[in-house]
Amino acid sequence: MGTVGSKHKTKKIKNYVNWFEIPVLNLKRAMAFYNHMYDIKMETTELNEYAMAFFPTDNGIGGALVMGPGSIPSETGSLIYLNGGEDLQVLLTKVGSAGGRVVLEKTKIDDDSGFFALFIDTEGNKLALHSKK
Prior knowledge:
About 15% of the residues lie in helices and about 35% in strands. It has two helices and eight strands, in the order βαββββαβββ. A four-stranded mixed sheet has the order 1-4-3-2, with helices on one face. A four-stranded mixed sheet has the order 5-8-7-6, covered by helices on one side. It has a single domain (about 20-130), classed as 2,3-Dihydroxybiphenyl 1,2-Dioxygenase, domain 1. The protein is globular and about 45 Å long. Helix 1 (about 25-40) packs antiparallel against helix 2 (about 90-95). By secondary structure, the chain is α/β, with parallel strands linked by helices.
């Protein structure tokens, strides 16, 4: 039997997430929601039975909306924290007008970690926003 500890020095990973996908039932509706929230224009592609819309990024962690077999929106399971920018309240105020709903208003975590909020998008996914202010 092995032990919990290890004599091997492991190399720390900079980011534990390198891509995310948000499942959707209606790609156009979901794109309209996130385009409105972030004031962006998502690019789309289709591959086999899947359609995807990509969150634009110059560098860093990217992600996409995905529609197709097995892409089932959910309020349970893993929770993705989206970047709330300087102050997540700016994005949070757009959730309702974009067709989603806020389930937890802006909440302080602590002085070092900042704030978070929870919302349900137009597809029924529960997601979070995070910001330092």
